[in-house]
Amino acid sequence: MILIALIGCNSTKEKIKNKDQNSRIKLINEQVSVEYATAFDIEYGDGYKLVTLKTPWQGSSSSLKYVLRHKENSLADSIKNLGKEIIIPIERLVCNSTSQIVFLEKLDLVDRLKGFPQTQYIYSPQIIEKVKSGSITDVGIEAKMNIEGILAIEPDVVMAFNTGNEDRQLNKLEELGVPVVINADYLETSALGRAEWIKFMSVFFDKEKEANFYFENTVFKYDSLASLVDDVNEVTVFSGSLYGGSWFMPAAKNYGALLIANAGGEYLWQNDNDTGWLNLDFEVVYEKAHSTDVWIGVGGFESLSQLKEADPRYADFKAFKNKRIYSYVNRVNEAGANDYFESGVFQADVVLADHIKMIHPELLPDYKLYYYKRLE
To answer: Are residues 233 and 129 in the same domain?
Structure first.
């Protein structure tokens, strides 16, 4: 995807860290440092890498540490005791989140992926072909992976996201001698923070140089795009929809709300300081948002008629009447897999471009929405 007329811009947005343009786009070295992500950190020692997962899962008050070393390197006990020992580079991987797939693709590591649960939810055509050919094995349901199937694969590591500190399947794999690495990219609250998890993935495969290249280019394009909205008038925006009788929408420090802010939108709930989700009554949302310009993020709805059928009250909003409602359903395959939750994690610049197009279409007149779709 080409984003034209952007190179050479410098952002003044508070949430974006500026660097000299040349340092943004050049290969730095074979080590990575963490700038935007808040849930992990990486340190380098003599013959090892120390990966610290500051927040392994939602609500965690303790960290996890992994000591990465090459097979030929021997480490002192004091270093080994820093954390769980992982032999790198990983040759055979099982993972359980589609958000990790795009990082494997960008780092040219697809051949290392040997197992994945519920492969029908994968969007990547490249990975789907490998599933069909049998080089990637379906290992059951994400919340209850097939232990026997994983053991048959003989993975070096199972990389998994975990929503709590007790997971019987992951604990069982550890007991059986399969190293488990927790990946918590979903906890990041900023688009660039999520994209930076390519660095987390890279250290397990000695792919730091490639991770630096892709991430630095992503930041530069994101920064350039964000600068387009520096002097525009903010357009009012709200988000979410009803689920189970309550309206869920991102809080002000949530990933979705920060994207709206960086795209020049005035988010109506921007004074809330939470990083999670708001749970509101319909009447509260309607009172504040019924005359709002733009409505972004209405779950899986694909048309205005579908939205109105779900709840006729939706049609009373100004954004509905003016057809300025958008949903992230533009890239969904026949099986229902949604690329927004896959490659959208890494392509922060593309997701921001979509938001600018939705909120300030005049700034990107020739740009076509990539992940989002305007409901008709």
So the answer is: no
The residue range of the domain holding 114 is 39-187
Q: What is the percent of the chain with per-residue pLDDT over 90, rounded to a whole number?
A: 80
| Burial profile 81-108: b = 16 or more Cβ within 10 angstroms, e = fewer | ebbbebebebeebbbbbbbbbbbbbbbe
What pairs with residue 42 in β-bridges?
Answer: 51
Average of per-residue pLDDT values in the chain: 90
33/22 Cα distance (integer angstroms): 18
Domain boundary among 161, 187, 213: 187
Q: How many domains does the chain have?
A: 2
Q: For residue 330, what is the DSSP state?
A: S
Whether the full predicted model's pTM is greater than 0.85, yes or no, is yes
Report yes or no on 5 lying in a domain. Answer: no
For residue 130, give both structure tokens.
């490998």
Whether residue 344 lies inside any domain: the answer is yes
Burial degree of 20 (CB within 10 A; 0-12, 13-18, 19+) = exposed
